[in-house]
Amino acid sequence: VQLVESGGGWVQPGGALKLACAASGLTFSNYAMSWLRQAPGKERDVVAQITMSGNMTRYAGSVKGRFTISRDNAKNMVFLQMNSLTIEDTAVYYCNAKGGYGTSYYGMDYWGEGTLVTVSP
Q: For 88-114, b where at least 16 C-beta lie within 10 A, e where not — what string?
């Protein structure tokens, strides 16, 4: 199984980035997907989550209204559109796949290696 994140980089405050995570080696539509981030010296926190079908999403309070998670099950990809970025959004962003409840993949847990997002003037 591989999860490969892309789209990170440097952006000025107020700017936007779109992260992508390409999944391979798993039955993608049977996995709930999440984006998490870890800022320097801090714990890894959940940013956004999306169900297997994509019909439900959940966001951390700090990003609600600014970030949008989406997925394309035909292409085995999950995305994170990040708007109105602030310095506090600077972190390494990780893609996570968790086997969906009620599937034979429940309990499986996979991680990407992360992509760095730097927000600075």
A: ebbbbbbbbbbbbeeeebeebebebeb
